[in-house]
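Record type: monomer structure entry
Structure origin: computed from sequence
Chain ID: A
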Amino acid sequence: MARRRKLAVPGAEQGVRDFKAEVMRAEGYSVDPERPDDVKYEVAEELGVPLTRGHNGNLTTEEAGQVGGKIGGTMVREMIRLAQERLAKRD
């Protein structure tokens, strides 16, 4: 069963998708600006995870986590870098 997580800030979905596309593009992935979430298929292929469109009930938790972790971890590292940069500018 798919879960849809809601963002804490209503209306921020497009901004998050744009940020994901920007970060993953900087990591060297080809990202379709209209479908930035599709980068997960390219990441999965690179990691050797058999992710397909549609039902992926055959994936292990570890396989799904590898794909999500690669994308989410990269986004979090970039958010931390940006926050540190902004804090440094306040001094």
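Annotation 1: The helical segments are 13-26, 39-47, 61-90.
Annotation 2: Residues 13-90 form one domain.
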